Amino acid sequence: MLIRAIATVGSMTLISRLLGFVRDVAVAWALGAGWMADVFFVAFKLPNLFRRLFAEGAFNLAFVPMFAGKLETDSDDEVRTFAAQAQSGLLVVLLAFTFIIELAMPWVVAAIAPGFVDEPEKFNLAVDLVRITFPYLIFISLVSLLGGIMNSLGKFWQAAATPILLNITLITSVFALTPFLPSPAHALSWGIAIGGLVQLGWMLWHTARIGWMPRLCLPKMTQDVKRLLKRIAPVALGAGIYQISLLIDTIIASLLVSGSISYLFYADRLVQLPLGVVGVAVGTALLPLLSRQIKAGNEAQALDSQNRAVEFALLLTLPAAAALFVIPDTIVSALFERGEFSAEATHKTAMALMVFALGLPAFVLVKALAPGYFAREDMSTPIKIGAGCIALDIVIAVALMGPLGHVGLAVATVVSQWLNAILLAYFLIKRGQFHFDARLLKRLARTLVATVLMALVVAGLDWLLIDRFNGWLGGGTSEKAASLALIIGAGMLVYGLAVHVLGAANLGDVKGWMKRPAKQT
Protein backbone atom coordinates (compact mmCIF):
# COMPACT_ATOMS: atom_id res chain seq x y z
CA MET A 1 0.00 0.00 0.00
CA LEU A 2 2.78 2.44 0.96
CA ILE A 3 4.92 1.88 -2.12
CA ARG A 4 1.86 1.98 -4.36
CA ALA A 5 0.97 5.38 -2.90
CA ILE A 6 4.57 6.54 -3.36
CA ALA A 7 4.48 5.32 -6.96
CA THR A 8 1.20 7.15 -7.59
CA VAL A 9 2.51 10.44 -6.21
CA GLY A 10 5.89 9.90 -7.82
CA SER A 11 4.48 9.25 -11.29
CA MET A 12 2.41 12.43 -11.17
CA THR A 13 5.42 14.33 -9.85
CA LEU A 14 7.59 12.89 -12.62
CA ILE A 15 5.22 14.26 -15.25
CA SER A 16 5.24 17.59 -13.42
CA ARG A 17 9.04 17.70 -13.22
CA LEU A 18 9.39 16.86 -16.90
CA LEU A 19 7.01 19.69 -17.74
CA GLY A 20 8.99 21.76 -15.26
CA PHE A 21 12.09 21.16 -17.36
CA VAL A 22 10.22 22.41 -20.41
CA ARG A 23 9.25 25.45 -18.36
CA ASP A 24 12.83 25.99 -17.17
CA VAL A 25 14.15 25.65 -20.72
CA ALA A 26 11.67 28.32 -21.80
CA VAL A 27 12.73 30.56 -18.90
CA ALA A 28 16.42 30.03 -19.66
CA TRP A 29 15.82 30.84 -23.31
CA ALA A 30 13.85 34.00 -22.50
CA LEU A 31 15.77 35.30 -19.48
CA GLY A 32 19.12 33.50 -19.42
CA ALA A 33 21.05 33.83 -16.14
CA GLY A 34 21.36 37.61 -15.92
CA TRP A 35 19.96 40.22 -13.56
CA MET A 36 16.35 39.97 -14.82
CA ALA A 37 16.42 36.21 -14.27
CA ASP A 38 17.75 36.81 -10.75
CA VAL A 39 14.81 39.14 -10.07
CA PHE A 40 12.21 36.71 -11.40
CA PHE A 41 13.62 33.83 -9.37
CA VAL A 42 13.35 35.92 -6.21
CA ALA A 43 9.70 36.66 -7.12
CA PHE A 44 9.13 32.95 -7.78
CA LYS A 45 10.94 31.78 -4.65
CA LEU A 46 9.22 33.95 -2.03
CA PRO A 47 5.63 32.63 -2.32
CA ASN A 48 7.03 29.13 -2.82
CA LEU A 49 9.07 29.45 0.36
CA PHE A 50 6.01 30.35 2.41
CA ARG A 51 4.03 27.65 0.61
CA ARG A 52 6.53 24.99 1.63
CA LEU A 53 6.88 26.34 5.15
CA PHE A 54 3.22 27.08 5.91
CA ALA A 55 1.14 24.99 3.53
CA GLU A 56 3.10 21.82 2.69
CA GLY A 57 5.24 22.22 5.79
CA ALA A 58 3.74 23.66 8.94
CA PHE A 59 0.02 23.43 8.26
CA ASN A 60 -0.14 20.20 6.31
CA LEU A 61 2.28 18.27 8.50
CA ALA A 62 0.40 19.38 11.60
CA PHE A 63 -3.05 18.90 10.06
CA VAL A 64 -2.65 15.49 8.38
CA PRO A 65 -1.70 13.47 11.51
CA MET A 66 -4.65 14.99 13.39
CA PHE A 67 -7.09 14.49 10.51
CA ALA A 68 -5.88 10.94 9.78
CA GLY A 69 -6.05 10.07 13.47
CA LYS A 70 -9.62 11.37 13.70
CA LEU A 71 -10.60 9.16 10.79
CA GLU A 72 -9.65 6.23 13.01
CA THR A 73 -11.32 7.39 16.23
CA ASP A 74 -14.00 10.06 15.63
CA SER A 75 -17.36 10.17 13.91
CA ASP A 76 -17.73 11.36 10.34
CA ASP A 77 -19.42 14.59 11.42
CA GLU A 78 -16.63 15.40 13.90
CA VAL A 79 -13.95 14.86 11.26
CA ARG A 80 -15.76 17.10 8.77
CA THR A 81 -16.23 19.81 11.40
CA PHE A 82 -12.51 19.77 12.19
CA ALA A 83 -11.62 20.07 8.47
CA ALA A 84 -14.02 23.01 8.05
CA GLN A 85 -12.63 24.82 11.10
CA ALA A 86 -9.06 24.25 9.97
CA GLN A 87 -9.86 25.61 6.51
CA SER A 88 -11.56 28.72 7.90
CA GLY A 89 -8.68 29.48 10.24
CA LEU A 90 -6.12 28.96 7.49
CA LEU A 91 -7.99 31.25 5.08
CA VAL A 92 -8.22 34.10 7.61
CA VAL A 93 -4.50 33.88 8.37
CA LEU A 94 -3.58 33.74 4.69
CA LEU A 95 -5.65 36.78 3.76
CA ALA A 96 -4.25 38.85 6.62
CA PHE A 97 -0.67 37.73 6.00
CA THR A 98 -0.84 38.39 2.26
CA PHE A 99 -2.33 41.86 2.81
CA ILE A 100 0.47 42.80 5.23
CA ILE A 101 3.23 41.47 2.97
CA GLU A 102 1.83 43.30 -0.07
CA LEU A 103 1.90 46.60 1.85
CA ALA A 104 5.40 45.94 3.19
CA MET A 105 6.81 44.56 -0.07
CA PRO A 106 9.72 47.05 -0.48
CA TRP A 107 11.02 46.12 2.98
CA VAL A 108 10.43 42.42 2.31
CA VAL A 109 12.44 42.52 -0.92
CA ALA A 110 15.20 44.47 0.81
CA ALA A 111 15.36 41.74 3.44
CA ILE A 112 15.45 38.73 1.10
CA ALA A 113 17.58 40.35 -1.65
CA PRO A 114 19.70 43.06 0.05
CA GLY A 115 22.06 43.11 -2.91
CA PHE A 116 19.27 44.61 -5.06
CA VAL A 117 18.85 47.73 -2.93
CA ASP A 118 21.69 49.68 -4.54
CA GLU A 119 20.39 48.94 -8.05
CA PRO A 120 17.04 50.79 -8.41
CA GLU A 121 15.96 49.13 -11.67
CA LYS A 122 16.51 45.66 -10.27
CA PHE A 123 14.97 46.50 -6.89
CA ASN A 124 11.82 48.15 -8.30
CA LEU A 125 11.23 45.28 -10.71
CA ALA A 126 11.59 42.79 -7.86
CA VAL A 127 8.99 44.65 -5.78
CA ASP A 128 6.54 44.68 -8.71
CA LEU A 129 7.00 41.01 -9.56
CA VAL A 130 6.73 39.73 -5.99
CA ARG A 131 3.50 41.71 -5.55
CA ILE A 132 2.13 39.88 -8.59
CA THR A 133 3.22 36.41 -7.48
CA PHE A 134 2.55 36.54 -3.75
CA PRO A 135 -1.25 35.89 -3.84
CA TYR A 136 -0.29 32.47 -5.19
CA LEU A 137 0.34 31.58 -1.54
CA ILE A 138 -3.39 31.80 -0.74
CA PHE A 139 -4.42 29.52 -3.57
CA ILE A 140 -1.73 26.89 -3.11
CA SER A 141 -2.18 26.73 0.68
CA LEU A 142 -5.85 25.85 0.22
CA VAL A 143 -4.77 23.31 -2.40
CA SER A 144 -2.45 21.78 0.21
CA LEU A 145 -5.26 21.54 2.77
CA LEU A 146 -7.57 19.79 0.30
CA GLY A 147 -4.71 17.54 -0.76
CA GLY A 148 -4.07 16.56 2.85
CA ILE A 149 -7.71 15.53 3.22
CA MET A 150 -7.61 13.41 0.07
CA ASN A 151 -4.26 11.82 0.95
CA SER A 152 -5.62 10.83 4.36
CA LEU A 153 -8.52 9.16 2.57
CA GLY A 154 -6.10 7.18 0.42
CA LYS A 155 -6.53 9.28 -2.73
CA PHE A 156 -3.18 10.62 -3.93
CA TRP A 157 -3.08 11.31 -7.66
CA GLN A 158 -5.40 14.33 -7.70
CA ALA A 159 -3.24 16.51 -5.43
CA ALA A 160 -0.03 15.14 -6.95
CA ALA A 161 -1.22 16.30 -10.38
CA THR A 162 -1.66 19.96 -9.39
CA PRO A 163 1.95 21.01 -10.17
CA ILE A 164 1.35 19.78 -13.73
CA LEU A 165 -1.32 22.45 -14.11
CA LEU A 166 1.04 25.15 -12.83
CA ASN A 167 3.78 24.19 -15.27
CA ILE A 168 1.36 24.14 -18.20
CA THR A 169 0.13 27.60 -17.19
CA LEU A 170 3.68 28.99 -16.93
CA ILE A 171 4.78 27.53 -20.26
CA THR A 172 1.71 29.04 -21.89
CA SER A 173 2.24 32.39 -20.18
CA VAL A 174 5.83 32.90 -21.30
CA PHE A 175 4.74 32.70 -24.94
CA ALA A 176 1.15 34.00 -24.82
CA LEU A 177 1.51 36.92 -22.40
CA THR A 178 5.01 38.26 -23.15
CA PRO A 179 3.92 40.25 -26.24
CA PHE A 180 1.38 42.16 -24.12
CA LEU A 181 3.52 42.85 -21.02
CA PRO A 182 6.74 44.81 -20.34
CA SER A 183 8.95 41.69 -20.16
CA PRO A 184 8.95 37.87 -20.07
CA ALA A 185 9.48 38.17 -16.31
CA HIS A 186 6.13 39.94 -15.98
CA ALA A 187 4.45 37.25 -18.08
CA LEU A 188 5.86 34.47 -15.93
CA SER A 189 4.88 36.25 -12.72
CA TRP A 190 1.27 36.59 -13.85
CA GLY A 191 1.42 32.95 -14.92
CA ILE A 192 2.23 31.95 -11.33
CA ALA A 193 -0.81 33.78 -9.95
CA ILE A 194 -3.11 32.36 -12.65
CA GLY A 195 -1.67 28.88 -12.14
CA GLY A 196 -2.57 29.01 -8.45
CA LEU A 197 -6.20 29.71 -9.31
CA VAL A 198 -6.26 26.84 -11.78
CA GLN A 199 -4.82 24.44 -9.18
CA LEU A 200 -7.37 25.48 -6.57
CA GLY A 201 -10.25 25.00 -9.00
CA TRP A 202 -8.96 21.50 -9.79
CA MET A 203 -8.84 20.45 -6.12
CA LEU A 204 -12.21 22.00 -5.27
CA TRP A 205 -13.77 19.96 -8.05
CA HIS A 206 -12.18 16.68 -6.92
CA THR A 207 -12.93 17.07 -3.22
CA ALA A 208 -16.52 17.98 -4.07
CA ARG A 209 -16.80 14.84 -6.24
CA ILE A 210 -15.99 12.54 -3.31
CA GLY A 211 -18.13 14.55 -0.90
CA TRP A 212 -15.33 15.85 1.29
CA MET A 213 -15.07 19.54 0.41
CA PRO A 214 -14.99 21.42 3.76
CA ARG A 215 -17.83 23.85 4.20
CA LEU A 216 -17.18 27.55 4.78
CA CYS A 217 -17.77 28.62 8.36
CA LEU A 218 -16.69 31.25 10.85
CA PRO A 219 -13.40 30.39 12.57
CA LYS A 220 -13.75 29.02 16.11
CA MET A 221 -10.99 28.47 18.67
CA THR A 222 -11.94 24.90 19.55
CA GLN A 223 -9.63 22.53 21.41
CA ASP A 224 -8.70 20.80 18.14
CA VAL A 225 -7.84 24.12 16.50
CA LYS A 226 -5.72 25.09 19.51
CA ARG A 227 -3.84 21.79 19.23
CA LEU A 228 -3.33 22.42 15.54
CA LEU A 229 -1.98 25.94 16.12
CA LYS A 230 0.46 24.72 18.77
CA ARG A 231 1.98 22.33 16.25
CA ILE A 232 2.27 24.69 13.30
CA ALA A 233 5.24 26.91 14.27
CA PRO A 234 7.61 24.08 15.25
CA VAL A 235 6.78 22.10 12.13
CA ALA A 236 7.48 25.13 9.92
CA LEU A 237 11.11 25.14 10.96
CA GLY A 238 11.54 21.41 11.39
CA ALA A 239 10.07 20.50 7.99
CA GLY A 240 11.25 23.59 6.14
CA ILE A 241 14.97 23.46 6.89
CA TYR A 242 15.88 22.87 3.25
CA GLN A 243 13.73 25.78 2.05
CA ILE A 244 15.12 28.07 4.72
CA SER A 245 18.62 27.05 3.65
CA LEU A 246 17.76 28.00 0.07
CA LEU A 247 16.37 31.36 1.24
CA ILE A 248 19.62 32.04 3.11
CA ASP A 249 21.47 31.18 -0.10
CA THR A 250 19.28 33.70 -1.99
CA ILE A 251 19.94 36.47 0.53
CA ILE A 252 23.70 35.93 0.41
CA ALA A 253 23.76 35.28 -3.36
CA SER A 254 22.13 38.69 -3.95
CA LEU A 255 25.33 40.16 -2.54
CA LEU A 256 27.48 38.28 -5.06
CA VAL A 257 27.94 38.92 -8.78
CA SER A 258 24.85 39.03 -11.01
CA GLY A 259 23.75 35.57 -12.05
CA SER A 260 24.59 33.86 -8.75
CA ILE A 261 20.91 33.48 -7.80
CA SER A 262 20.17 32.05 -11.23
CA TYR A 263 23.02 29.53 -11.12
CA LEU A 264 21.74 28.19 -7.79
CA PHE A 265 18.14 28.19 -9.02
CA TYR A 266 18.83 26.19 -12.19
CA ALA A 267 21.01 23.70 -10.27
CA ASP A 268 18.33 23.31 -7.62
CA ARG A 269 15.70 22.72 -10.31
CA LEU A 270 17.69 19.75 -11.61
CA VAL A 271 18.00 18.31 -8.11
CA GLN A 272 14.26 18.84 -7.62
CA LEU A 273 13.44 16.19 -10.25
CA PRO A 274 14.57 13.18 -8.19
CA LEU A 275 13.81 14.98 -4.93
CA GLY A 276 10.25 15.68 -6.04
CA VAL A 277 9.61 12.32 -7.66
CA VAL A 278 11.06 10.32 -4.77
CA GLY A 279 11.46 12.48 -1.67
CA VAL A 280 8.22 14.43 -1.79
CA ALA A 281 6.31 11.31 -2.84
CA VAL A 282 7.73 9.35 0.10
CA GLY A 283 6.88 12.07 2.61
CA THR A 284 3.39 12.59 1.18
CA ALA A 285 2.49 8.90 1.22
CA LEU A 286 4.25 7.98 4.48
CA LEU A 287 2.83 10.61 6.84
CA PRO A 288 -0.87 9.65 6.77
CA LEU A 289 -0.02 5.93 6.80
CA LEU A 290 2.31 6.27 9.82
CA SER A 291 -0.22 8.48 11.59
CA ARG A 292 -2.96 5.88 11.25
CA GLN A 293 -0.69 2.95 12.17
CA ILE A 294 0.65 4.68 15.28
CA LYS A 295 -2.81 5.88 16.31
CA ALA A 296 -4.01 2.27 16.05
CA GLY A 297 -1.05 1.06 18.16
CA ASN A 298 0.66 -0.81 15.30
CA GLU A 299 4.26 0.25 16.04
CA ALA A 300 5.72 -2.81 14.30
CA GLN A 301 3.88 -1.93 11.09
CA ALA A 302 5.00 1.69 11.41
CA LEU A 303 8.63 0.59 11.75
CA ASP A 304 8.35 -1.62 8.67
CA SER A 305 6.65 1.17 6.69
CA GLN A 306 9.45 3.62 7.48
CA ASN A 307 12.17 1.10 6.61
CA ARG A 308 10.52 0.31 3.30
CA ALA A 309 10.16 4.02 2.58
CA VAL A 310 13.89 4.59 3.19
CA GLU A 311 14.78 1.51 1.13
CA PHE A 312 12.64 2.57 -1.82
CA ALA A 313 13.80 6.19 -1.62
CA LEU A 314 17.51 5.34 -1.67
CA LEU A 315 17.02 2.75 -4.43
CA LEU A 316 15.86 5.56 -6.74
CA THR A 317 17.86 8.45 -5.31
CA LEU A 318 21.42 7.14 -5.22
CA PRO A 319 21.75 6.59 -9.00
CA ALA A 320 20.23 10.01 -9.68
CA ALA A 321 22.72 11.65 -7.32
CA ALA A 322 25.59 9.79 -8.95
CA ALA A 323 24.60 10.86 -12.46
CA LEU A 324 24.18 14.51 -11.45
CA PHE A 325 27.60 14.43 -9.81
CA VAL A 326 29.45 12.65 -12.64
CA ILE A 327 28.14 14.58 -15.68
CA PRO A 328 26.82 17.97 -14.45
CA ASP A 329 28.19 20.00 -17.37
CA THR A 330 26.67 17.65 -19.91
CA ILE A 331 23.26 17.77 -18.26
CA VAL A 332 23.16 21.56 -17.88
CA SER A 333 24.45 22.17 -21.40
CA ALA A 334 21.93 19.85 -23.02
CA LEU A 335 18.96 21.25 -21.10
CA PHE A 336 19.65 24.98 -20.84
CA GLU A 337 22.47 26.24 -23.09
CA ARG A 338 20.58 28.13 -25.77
CA GLY A 339 19.17 31.62 -26.30
CA GLU A 340 20.27 33.88 -23.44
CA PHE A 341 21.87 31.02 -21.50
CA SER A 342 25.63 31.11 -22.18
CA ALA A 343 28.45 28.56 -21.89
CA GLU A 344 29.72 30.44 -18.84
CA ALA A 345 26.31 30.08 -17.20
CA THR A 346 26.43 26.35 -17.99
CA HIS A 347 29.76 25.90 -16.24
CA LYS A 348 28.80 27.88 -13.14
CA THR A 349 25.45 26.14 -12.84
CA ALA A 350 27.15 22.76 -13.22
CA MET A 351 29.52 23.56 -10.36
CA ALA A 352 26.58 24.17 -8.04
CA LEU A 353 24.79 21.08 -9.37
CA MET A 354 27.74 18.84 -8.54
CA VAL A 355 27.64 19.98 -4.93
CA PHE A 356 23.85 19.70 -4.64
CA ALA A 357 24.10 16.14 -5.99
CA LEU A 358 26.16 15.15 -2.96
CA GLY A 359 23.32 16.30 -0.74
CA LEU A 360 20.48 14.66 -2.65
CA PRO A 361 20.40 11.46 -0.53
CA ALA A 362 20.23 13.62 2.60
CA PHE A 363 17.39 15.72 1.17
CA VAL A 364 15.39 12.53 0.53
CA LEU A 365 16.24 10.92 3.88
CA VAL A 366 14.84 13.96 5.67
CA LYS A 367 11.56 13.43 3.80
CA ALA A 368 11.49 9.78 4.88
CA LEU A 369 12.55 10.33 8.52
CA ALA A 370 10.65 13.49 9.49
CA PRO A 371 7.22 11.77 9.34
CA GLY A 372 8.42 9.56 12.20
CA TYR A 373 8.20 12.65 14.42
CA PHE A 374 5.16 14.34 12.93
CA ALA A 375 3.07 11.16 12.98
CA ARG A 376 3.73 10.96 16.75
CA GLU A 377 2.88 14.67 17.06
CA ASP A 378 6.41 15.45 18.25
CA MET A 379 7.07 18.95 16.95
CA SER A 380 9.79 20.13 19.36
CA THR A 381 12.57 17.77 18.27
CA PRO A 382 12.51 18.75 14.56
CA ILE A 383 12.52 22.45 15.44
CA LYS A 384 15.58 22.06 17.65
CA ILE A 385 17.38 20.10 14.96
CA GLY A 386 16.25 22.59 12.32
CA ALA A 387 17.46 25.60 14.28
CA GLY A 388 20.91 24.09 14.71
CA CYS A 389 21.15 23.20 11.03
CA ILE A 390 20.12 26.70 9.93
CA ALA A 391 22.77 28.21 12.19
CA LEU A 392 25.40 25.92 10.69
CA ASP A 393 24.20 26.80 7.16
CA ILE A 394 24.65 30.52 7.83
CA VAL A 395 28.12 30.11 9.34
CA ILE A 396 29.42 27.97 6.47
CA ALA A 397 27.78 30.15 3.79
CA VAL A 398 29.31 33.35 5.17
CA ALA A 399 32.70 31.67 5.53
CA LEU A 400 32.74 30.28 1.97
CA MET A 401 30.97 33.04 -0.01
CA GLY A 402 34.25 34.91 -0.47
CA PRO A 403 36.55 32.13 -1.72
CA LEU A 404 33.93 29.96 -3.46
CA GLY A 405 31.13 32.38 -4.41
CA HIS A 406 27.79 30.70 -5.16
CA VAL A 407 29.37 27.24 -4.86
CA GLY A 408 30.14 27.95 -1.22
CA LEU A 409 26.43 28.53 -0.62
CA ALA A 410 25.64 25.14 -2.14
CA VAL A 411 28.22 23.52 0.14
CA ALA A 412 26.58 25.14 3.18
CA THR A 413 23.15 23.80 2.18
CA VAL A 414 24.43 20.26 1.66
CA VAL A 415 26.37 20.08 4.94
CA SER A 416 23.39 21.37 6.93
CA GLN A 417 21.07 18.87 5.25
CA TRP A 418 23.32 15.90 6.04
CA LEU A 419 23.45 17.00 9.65
CA ASN A 420 19.65 17.31 9.63
CA ALA A 421 19.20 13.76 8.30
CA ILE A 422 21.75 12.26 10.70
CA LEU A 423 20.21 13.88 13.76
CA LEU A 424 16.65 12.92 12.76
CA ALA A 425 17.75 9.29 12.43
CA TYR A 426 19.80 9.39 15.66
CA PHE A 427 16.99 10.56 17.93
CA LEU A 428 14.42 8.19 16.42
CA ILE A 429 16.82 5.30 17.01
CA LYS A 430 17.69 6.48 20.51
CA ARG A 431 13.99 6.49 21.47
CA GLY A 432 13.45 3.02 20.07
CA GLN A 433 11.05 4.34 17.45
CA PHE A 434 13.18 3.36 14.47
CA HIS A 435 16.11 1.17 13.47
CA PHE A 436 17.55 0.12 10.13
CA ASP A 437 16.34 -3.45 9.71
CA ALA A 438 18.43 -6.26 8.21
CA ARG A 439 16.67 -6.15 4.85
CA LEU A 440 17.32 -2.41 4.45
CA LEU A 441 21.03 -2.70 5.34
CA LYS A 442 21.58 -5.68 3.04
CA ARG A 443 19.81 -4.08 0.10
CA LEU A 444 21.45 -0.69 0.67
CA ALA A 445 24.90 -2.24 0.31
CA ARG A 446 23.86 -3.87 -2.97
CA THR A 447 22.29 -0.63 -4.18
CA LEU A 448 25.58 1.19 -3.57
CA VAL A 449 27.46 -1.36 -5.68
CA ALA A 450 24.93 -1.01 -8.50
CA THR A 451 25.22 2.78 -8.29
CA VAL A 452 29.01 2.66 -8.63
CA LEU A 453 28.73 0.41 -11.70
CA MET A 454 26.20 2.78 -13.27
CA ALA A 455 28.36 5.83 -12.52
CA LEU A 456 31.36 4.22 -14.25
CA VAL A 457 29.29 3.53 -17.37
CA VAL A 458 27.84 7.05 -17.41
CA ALA A 459 31.27 8.64 -16.96
CA GLY A 460 32.74 6.44 -19.68
CA LEU A 461 30.02 7.27 -22.18
CA ASP A 462 30.34 10.95 -21.35
CA TRP A 463 34.06 10.82 -22.07
CA LEU A 464 33.48 8.85 -25.27
CA LEU A 465 30.77 11.10 -26.69
CA ILE A 466 32.02 14.46 -25.44
CA ASP A 467 35.80 14.18 -25.25
CA ARG A 468 36.79 11.39 -27.62
CA PHE A 469 34.35 12.34 -30.37
CA ASN A 470 34.67 16.03 -29.68
CA GLY A 471 31.69 18.10 -30.69
CA TRP A 472 28.84 15.59 -30.79
CA LEU A 473 27.18 17.17 -27.78
CA GLY A 474 28.47 20.56 -28.87
CA GLY A 475 26.24 20.56 -31.92
CA GLY A 476 22.67 21.73 -32.13
CA THR A 477 19.79 21.14 -29.76
CA SER A 478 18.90 17.74 -31.25
CA GLU A 479 22.50 16.48 -30.97
CA LYS A 480 22.71 17.55 -27.34
CA ALA A 481 19.41 15.88 -26.52
CA ALA A 482 20.40 12.68 -28.33
CA SER A 483 23.73 12.45 -26.52
CA LEU A 484 22.22 13.01 -23.09
CA ALA A 485 19.39 10.58 -23.78
CA LEU A 486 21.88 7.90 -24.84
CA ILE A 487 24.03 8.39 -21.74
CA ILE A 488 21.07 8.38 -19.34
CA GLY A 489 19.38 5.47 -21.09
CA ALA A 490 22.50 3.34 -20.92
CA GLY A 491 22.99 4.27 -17.26
CA MET A 492 19.41 3.28 -16.40
CA LEU A 493 19.79 -0.04 -18.22
CA VAL A 494 23.03 -0.89 -16.43
CA TYR A 495 21.61 0.13 -13.07
CA GLY A 496 18.42 -1.87 -13.56
CA LEU A 497 20.36 -4.99 -14.52
CA ALA A 498 22.83 -4.55 -11.66
CA VAL A 499 20.03 -4.05 -9.13
CA HIS A 500 18.33 -7.23 -10.32
CA VAL A 501 21.49 -9.37 -10.50
CA LEU A 502 22.81 -8.16 -7.13
CA GLY A 503 19.43 -8.58 -5.45
CA ALA A 504 18.92 -4.95 -4.41
CA ALA A 505 15.40 -5.28 -5.80
CA ASN A 506 13.58 -7.66 -8.11
CA LEU A 507 10.49 -7.98 -10.24
CA GLY A 508 8.61 -9.61 -7.39
CA ASP A 509 9.19 -6.52 -5.27
CA VAL A 510 7.76 -4.30 -7.96
CA LYS A 511 4.67 -6.48 -8.33
CA GLY A 512 4.20 -6.55 -4.57
CA TRP A 513 4.66 -2.81 -4.24
CA MET A 514 2.14 -2.04 -6.95
CA LYS A 515 -0.48 -4.61 -5.89
CA ARG A 516 -3.64 -3.13 -4.44
CA PRO A 517 -4.21 -4.16 -0.83
CA ALA A 518 -7.19 -6.37 -0.17
CA LYS A 519 -10.23 -4.54 1.08
CA GLN A 520 -11.07 -4.89 4.73
CA THR A 521 -14.32 -6.70 5.48
Description:
The chain is 83% helix and 0% strand. The chain folds into two domains: 2-436, no CATH class; 438-513, no CATH class. It is globular and about 65 Å long. It has helices at residues 2-31, 35-73, 76-103, 105-112, 120-133, 136-152, 157-160, 162-176, 184-209, 223-239, 241-253, 260-295, 299-326, 328-336, 343-369, 371-374, 380-404, 406-430, 438-468, 477-502, 507-514. The longest helix has 39 residues, at 35-73.
Would you summarize the structure shown here?
With 521 residues, the protein is mainly alpha-helical. It is 83% helix and 0% strand.
The number of helical runs is 21
Q: How many domains in all?
A: 2
Query: Mean pLDDT score, rounded?
Result: 81
The backbone outline, from C-alpha atoms, is globular
Work out the helicity level: over 70%
End-to-end CA span: 17 Å
Number of strands: 0
Low-confidence runs: 511-521
Radius of gyration: 22 Å
